[in-house]
Specification:
Elements (H helix, E strand, L loop, with lengths): L1 E2 L5 E5 L2 H4 L8 H8 L10 H14 L4 E5 L2 H4 L8 H16 L3 E7 L5 H5 L8 H16 L5 E6 L1 H9 L11 H28 L6 E13 L4 H24 L6 E11 L6 H6 L21 H10 L6 E5 L7 H20 L4 E7 L18 E3 L6 E3 L1 H12 L1 E2 L1
Parallel strand pairs: 2-3, 2-9, 3-4, 4-5, 5-6, 6-7, 7-8, 8-9
Antiparallel strand pairs: 1-12, 10-11
Helix pairs in contact: 3-5, 7-9, 8-9, 12-13, 13-14
Length: about 400
């Protein structure tokens, strides 16, 4: 029997664009149509049904919930803020508080206002200033109800998918433009971190905990060759830890948010830089189960990552960890194995403060549409009926007792 600490945070996460529906002021809304992708439309109607969804989360024993605020709702036109949208998110916070669920609030989860995108988005020279203006408006209004903030979700995924691989809007394929956007997002976090702390001091509130949610992969050498070991170490430093190191150098993280899903099996063919950064095993070595998107399921990688992050001497939170699958038994197997991995790291002194499953609800999985099913709760997209899955009930027992068989 594994027993987690009494004050451990248990819950799930969502992102506004993926669950709310009707986010017409966000850049993904027109892009979905122009790109010919499946459209988010009403999504899960969480914007209207959040009370029902939080009732379910409360019944499942969750004591924490991560959600994001949609910038395009808060500031639908440049410099014009929506009091109605702000009041909605205030109501969301009060609904969580009434159920004794701790909110973790994300300010940027992949989407931007349409007006911001038309100006050039994160490439615009004033992009950081625009983000800080939005941040200040939101944080000043909501600070008394929020203790934990995520400024930016998965900055490395956003910049690579939008500005290097060209998969997401604005579909740029340029290393130099990607690096420009990265510099802006780094500056945005550093300045937002200081701004949030300043607001809490001005309002005489207890200090907040502010971080990013960093996407991390287990980078595993396929064979113990020098090339593979070097490449795995290099990728870990570049993709997993580089931004964290910058933020920590500037003392701009109060904890580390970890989003973990999968491994990459590193098998380098030659010593070229492109090979070192991207070659993976194509021969089917070390096979493991995969989720419905083809991502490797590798629970031990989470423990390995947490142990590597121990050196930073900061609390850690699993801000996302989940599986898309049509087999709910496989979902519980995934959760259970990853919780054991988390506990294994904690036994070795890693200060993990909480675990948030991705996601509370089935939702709109970006360019993959509604096909992947990540939710603890099934959503019927025709009727919007919610059905609690068996995996959610099993996870609920852990959340309520802290005990895992």
């Amino acid at each position: 029997m594994i027993q987690f600490p009494k004050k451990f945070l248990w819950g799930a996460a969502t992102a506004a664009y993926q669950v709310e529906g009707g986010n017409v002021g966000s850049d993904w809304w027109p892009w979905e149509k122009s790109a010919g992708n499946e459209c988010s439309g009403p999504a899960c109607r969480h914007y209207e049904m959040y009370d029902q969804d939080f009732d379910l989360a409360q019944g499942l024993g969750h004591n924490v919930h991560r959600f994001s605020i949609e910038w395009g709702r808060i500031e639908p036109e440049e410099g014009k803020f929506s009091r109605e949208a702000l009041n909605h998110y205030l109501a969301v916070l009060l609904a969580l508080k009434a159920r004794h669920i701790e909110p973790v609030v994300t300010l940027h989860h992949f989407t931007n206002p349409v007006w911001f995108a038309k100006l050039g988005g994160w490439e615009h020279p004033r992009a950081v200033r625009y983000f800080l203006r939005y941040t200040e408006f939101v944080v000043r209004a909501l600070a008394q109800y929020v203790r934990i903030w995520i400024t930016i979700n998965e900055p490395t995924i956003y910049i690579s998918h939008a500005y290097l691989f060209g998969i997401w809007p604005p579909q740029v394929k340029s290393l130099w433009r990607m690096l420009r956007v990265e510099r802006r997002m780094v500056s945005a976090h550093l300045r937002a971190y200081r701004l949030i702390h300043k607001i809490y001091r001005q309002e005489s509130l207890s200090g907040p905990r502010v971080s990013i949610a960093q996407h991390m992969m287990a980078l595993v050498p396929c064979t113990p060759s020098l090339k593979n070991r070097f490449a795995a170490s290099l990728r870990h430093k570049l993709f997993n830890e580089r931004l964290l190191s910058i933020f920590l150098r500037h003392k701009a993280l109060d904890f580390i948010g970890v989003n973990y899903y999968s491994r990459q099996l590193v098998d380098v063919q030659k010593w070229g830089l492109r090979n070192l950064l991207s070659d993976t095993c194509k021969a089917g070595h070390h096979p493991v189960k995969k989720n419905s998107l083809g991502w490797d399921i590798y629970p031990e990688g989470l423990s390995q990552l947490l142990l590597k992050l121990k050196k930073y001497d900061l609390p850690l939170m699993i801000t996302e960890n989940g599986i898309c699958t049509s087999d709910d038994a496989e979902r519980w197997e995934f959760i259970s194995a990853h919780l054991k991995s988390v506990y294994g790291a904690m036994e070795r002194g890693v200060p993990v403060m909480g675990y948030l499953y991705w996601s509370l609800l089935d939702n709109f999985e970006w360019d993959k549409g509604f096909g992947p099913r990540f939710g603890l709760i099934d959503v019927d997209y025709a009727t919007f009926k919610r059905t609690v899955r068996q995996s959610a009930l099993k996870f609920s027992q852990v959340a309520k007792t802290g005990a895992l068989e």
